[in-house]
Amino acid sequence: MAERTTVLLAEDDVSSRRIMAHLLERSGYEVRVAQDGREALELIGPDVHVALIDWMMPGVDGVEVCRRLKEVTGGRAYAIMVTAKAEKSDIVHALDAGADDYMTKPVDHAELLARVRAAERVAVREHRLAQAWVQARSEADRDALTGLYTRRVFDEALAELTVKPRSAPVALLMIDLDHFKRINDTHGHRVGDEVLRAAAEAIRSEVRSGTDIAARYGGEEIAVIAPAAEIGGAEELAERIRARVEELRLVAGGTLVAVTVSVGVAALQPHESEHDPARTLVERADARLYEAKGAGRNQVAA
Ligand code: GH3
Ligand code: MG
Ligand code: MG
Ligand code: MG
């Protein structure tokens, strides 16, 4: 049996709550009902797909509930704010707080269900997209030296994963080996190849195997796409990679080869409407990488 979509409903007004809960249940959703913000915080879990959140609630308000929902679900749940307010500035505030959509009261029943269906499509789509990418790859999509995905796969994946609408941020790590030319010059090109292979393996061992895409971007530069990752999470991943590479103990001609990487981290938020989102994200991560190099290498800049 297919998994049912879980909808969190947070509404302090009794009659609105009853009507909305009834509509959603009748449409086959698994509905979790909260009478106020505090209860909503308790009912939030990583399994929530879509949330309908009343803006005005006593105690903990809708904006706070929205923020927490995004945190717990790693940005994946789709948040629709329900509000009596219709001022432009309020809507901007809601979207800034991480809301994906909003509806004004009184809520039209057909519109409510249509919006939840649209939200469901985005939330479910994003997860499947990332998984499908990883599952559909063959050997030809792998770089011969490193075993990482090829540049072509990277370009295709990034274009698809950054397309709108997005319910979660997409993060990108740009990783570049430090002073790699010197390693080649000192130890020879074959050792250089070994170093590159070992660094790639260290990176692969740190990324999430189901969804993250680690590719050889070019030469001694490796890129990792982390779908549905907040900038903070991506920064932690980058730091783990940096530390792991530094710990490599590679020996050539009886001497230890010191190898480190610099990493630039950037993310694209769900509501940014860039003309060319993939390119924007690459440019941002590149700029951070340049900073990390300038600040002395063997470090992460986000
Ligand atoms: P930085 O810290 O600024 O990145 O210095 P760098 O020396 O790593 O950067 P630079 O761009 O000057 O040199 C990159 C070198 O990487 C030059 C190129 O020959 C080498 N390289 C690129 N691809 C490969 C490869 O597949 N195998 C080997 N052995 N070397 C490679
Ligand atoms: Mg209310
Ligand atoms: Mg380099
Ligand atoms: Mg380089």
Bound molecules: 3'-deoxy-guanosine-5'-triphosphate, magnesium ion
Strand content: 15-25%
Mean of pLDDT:
90
Described by the principal axes of the CA atoms, the overall outline is elongated
The largest pleated sheet is described as: 5 strands, parallel
- The low-pLDDT segments are none
Q: What is the CA-based Rg, rounded?
A: 23 Å
Number of domains: 2
- DSSP helical segment count: 10
Strand order of the largest sheet: 2-1-3-4-5
Looking at CATH, the homologous superfamily of the largest domain is: Reverse transcriptase/Diguanylate cyclase domain
Strand-and-helix sequence, N→C?
EHEHEHEHEHHEHHEEHEEEHE
Description:
By secondary structure, the chain is α/β, with parallel strands linked by helices. It is 46% helix and 21% strand. The chain has helices at 14-26, 37-43, 62-72, 88-96, 109-135, 151-161, 180-187, 189-206, 231-246, 277-294; strands spanning 6-10, 30-34, 50-54, 78-83, 101-104, 170-177, 213-218, 221-227, 250-252, 255-257, 261-268, 300-301. The strands form three sheets. The protein has a five-stranded parallel sheet with strand order 2-1-3-4-5, sandwiched between helices. The chain has a five-stranded mixed sheet with strand order 7-8-6-11-12, sandwiched between helices. Helix 2 (37-43) runs parallel beside helix 3 and helix 7 crosses helix 8 (189-206). It is elongated, with a radius of gyration of 23 Å. The model has no long low-confidence stretch (mean pLDDT 90). One magnesium ion (MG) is lined by residues 176, 219-221. Residues 176, 219-221 line the site of one magnesium ion.
